[in-house]
């Protein structure tokens, strides 16, 4: 029961805020997230609002960068299905679908008290999800929307729509 409007990646924050949306979704996409200052700046403005924000894949990396974390190019990216990820909030493993070559640097998160790791890759311990403490912002590195593939992570969309409904 959500209505979505898709905008080009370089849409500025004010244009998005003027639309009166209930929340924001940062989609996946290709490329080095550190080479996208326009997106990082937009996210920094959007996160000054109390509106829910969810990110997937590139959106996860960009959310981290917007709060001052760093990303790096992985030696071997994560591609394909059945990557085990541990949800640190529930202590449950999820089988995920992945397609990325960059990741959040976990060491850079130590100096950012408002960011918390929520998901870890069980194969190599890379950061697979973060949340902003006390704010309705969260993201994951993998693809909960992937089909065909595992459906262990569809609860993330329920979580996001519940945040939208509570505003």
Number of H/I helices: 5
Strand order within the widest beta sheet = 1-2-7-6-5-3-4
| Low-pLDDT runs | none
The beta-strand count equals 7
How far the N terminus sits from the C terminus, by CA atoms, comes to 15 Å
- Helix fraction by DSSP (H/I, runs of at least 4): 10-25%
Radius of gyration, rounded? 15 Å
Mean pLDDT: 94
Shape: globular
Structural class: alpha/beta
Tell me what portion of residues adopts beta-strand conformation: 25-35%
Largest sheet entry:
7 strands, mixed
SSE pattern, N- to C-terminal? HEHEHEEHEEEH
Q: Can you tell me about this structure?
A:
Helix 2 (37-46) packs across helix 3 (58-66). The chain has 167 residues and is an alpha/beta fold. The protein contains 5 helices and 7 strands; from the N terminus they run H-E-H-E-H-E-E-H-E-E-E-H. Strands 1-2-7-6-5-3-4 form a 7-stranded mixed β-sheet. The chain has helices at 13-17, 37-46, 58-66, 106-109, 155-165, and strands at residues 24-26, 53-56, 71-87, 92-104, 115-121, 127-132, 137-140.
